[in-house]
């Protein structure tokens, strides 16, 4: 492959999702006179727009799919190659693309994302949702569906059961409460009425959900969708009719029930897209199949970095941070990987970025603003923690996780206006023992309290 090299770039980034684009922008701007390449399988790239720093650590932004020419116009040293990488030779520092071209690199960053981990492979009645194509396929199939089964209890399932209209949705959940990847049972309880509310009934007179609490028995192309992916696409089925007794597919659950449906959405997590890079190389993989990266986003292969959903952060984490497959983390990792690659080339030292100090995520579920901070579900704390909860039905749910009298995490649902104060309390690790439950007393203006 070495002899066929068409061109050698100083930096090559693989993947036009948010991690890859952020990384390549960082490198192209810092090294304006060096050749940089972005190799991506899809025709479009993802761009961060309307970036807003909500507080010291919380950020919000929109993500837009754009033609890649937008990037090439912005950076004259950037070349975009539209083809999938089919193999990598780390010992000769080159990649081969599906269209047979070979490119050399000095430093490479793999940002190839992840793909849905489907319940069953190659069953035409089981769909995953990841990119624009799969979302469109879902929309098309939904338009003629009377009943679907959604399997999984994470972000995608939460969004779907709320957004789908005029179609019976059977949500198969193996946990005791909904939304296990984001919420505890208390928060889940707070959110449940939103699924049964009058507002929904008015918009979708035929919408019905049925919950079950047992799981059923039993090629990545574009970038992952992101915030508000369902806005602007009609997620509407056909009005449910009486069960005719004949469905395209049947799902048997471990609680013994069987449901027929038009199709099944497998919202059961993702697997990192690593295959094209593994053969012939010695990448260390984490338990989740991601490329292991150290605190400089470096994989176990020399001059190869990784960022976003494809990688697993294997440095010793801050006690207040954990990795999740999220838009924000893809951006932060892509940006930091670019800076680490630059520091390496310039032989400059670089410290782990402060964004990895505290986990923070702002999103929306069931039309509520949701802010998650630190060890929001007491992850890894065992019994060594206490919880304070304040809840006003239909308005807000506030949960604080304390360990040794110090705040280590929080879940804020609704317009609580507490995120900045709590973020500061978590970061400064102040001993809050003296305040006890007063911490969540709604009659106290907590901001003034700690100023
Ligand atoms: C339906 C849905 C809703 C979501 N909602 C949210 C949300 O509200 N908030 C949030 O924070 N996160 C959300 N996420 C998660 C978020 O989208 C991902 O964590 C994030 O997009 C990961 O970015 P990435 O750049 O690592 O990977 P991706 O966006 O998956 O990009 C990977 C890129 O690599 C390219 N690629 C793959 N293989 C190759 C190859 N061999 N050669 C060349 N190119 C390749 C792909 O074409 C793509 O351009 C959602 C995800 C989904 C699926
Ligand atoms: N607003 C947001 O922030 C959103 C973020 N996302 C992100 O996009 C990515 C993909 O989302 P999603 O697919 O929902 O993945 P998630 O990882 O969020 O959730 C997967 C869910 O499926 C469950 N599960 C896994 N295997 C099975 C099985 N065999 N049977 C039944 N249930 C199973 C998991 O349970 P268990 O945990 O017990 O394994 C978990 O509840 C995630 O990284 C997610 O964080 C997606 C949508 C919205």
UniProtKB/TrEMBL annotation:
Domain NADH-rubredoxin oxidoreductase C-terminal residues, every copy: 364-429
Family membership noted in the UniProt record: Belongs to the class-I pyridine nucleotide-disulfide oxidoreductase family. PYROXD1 subfamily.
Protein name per its UniProtKB record: Pyridine nucleotide-disulfide oxidoreductase domain-containing protein 1
Ranges for region Disordered: 203-244
Function: Probable FAD-dependent oxidoreductase; involved in the cellular oxidative stress response. Required for normal sarcomere structure and muscle fiber integrity.
Residue ranges of the TM segments: none
Gene3D superfamilies recorded: 3.30.390.30, FAD/NAD(P)-binding domain
């Amino acid at each position: 492959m070495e002899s066929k090299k068409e061109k050698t770039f100083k930096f090559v980034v693989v993947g036009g999702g948010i991690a890859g684009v952020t990384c390549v922008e960082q490198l192209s701007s810092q090294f304006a006179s060096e050749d940089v390449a972005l190799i991506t399988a899809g025709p479009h790239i993802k761009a961060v727009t309307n970036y807003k720093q909500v507080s010291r650590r919380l950020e919000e932004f929109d993500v837009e799919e754009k033609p890649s020419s937008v990037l090439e116009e912005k950076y004259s040293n950037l070349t975009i190659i539209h083809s999938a990488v089919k193999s990598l030779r780390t010992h000769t520092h080159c990649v081969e693309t599906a269209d047979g071209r070979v490119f050399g690199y000095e430093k490479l960053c793999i940002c190839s994302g992840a793909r849905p981990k489907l319940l069953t492979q190659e069953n035409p009645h089981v769909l995953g949702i990841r990119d624009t194509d799969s979302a469109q396929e879902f929309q098309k199939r939904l338009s003629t569906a009377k009943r679907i089964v959604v399997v999984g209890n994470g972000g995608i399932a939460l969004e779907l059961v709320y957004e789908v209209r005029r179609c019976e949705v059977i949500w198969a959940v193996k946990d005791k409460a909904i939304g296990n990847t984001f919420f505890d049972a208390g928060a889940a309880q707070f959110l449940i009425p939103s699924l049964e509310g009058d507002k929904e009934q008015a918009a979708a007179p035929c919408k019905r959900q049925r919950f079950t609490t047992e799981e059923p028995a039993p090629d990545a192309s574009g970038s992952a969708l992101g915030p508000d992916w369902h806005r602007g696409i009609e997620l509407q089925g056909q009005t449910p009719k009486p069960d005719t007794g004949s469905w395209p597919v049947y799902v048997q659950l471990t609680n013994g029930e069987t449901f027929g449906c038009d199709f099944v959405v497998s919202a059961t997590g993702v697997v990192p897209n690593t295959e094209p890079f593994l053969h012939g190389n010695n990448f260390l993989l984490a338990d989740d199949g991601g490329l292991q990266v150290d605190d400089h986003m470096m994989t176990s292969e020399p001059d190869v970095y990784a960022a976003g959903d494809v990688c697993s952060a294997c440095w010793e984490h801050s006690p207040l941070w954990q990795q999740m497959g999220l838009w924000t983390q893809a951006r932060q990792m892509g940006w930091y990987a670019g800076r680490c690659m630059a520091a390496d080339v310039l032989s400059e030292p670089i410290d782990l970025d402060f964004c990895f100090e505290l986990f923070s995520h702002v999103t929306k579920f069931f039309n509520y603003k949701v802010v998650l901070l630190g060890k929001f579900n007491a992850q890894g704390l065992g019994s060594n923690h206490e919880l304070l909860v304040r809840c006003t039905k239909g308005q807000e749910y506030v949960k604080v996780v304390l360990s040794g009298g110090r705040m280590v995490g929080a879940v804020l649902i609704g317009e609580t206006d507490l995120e900045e104060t709590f973020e500061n309390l978590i970061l400064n690790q102040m001993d809050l023992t003296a305040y006890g439950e007063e911490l969540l007393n709604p009659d106290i203006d907590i901001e003034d309290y700690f100023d």
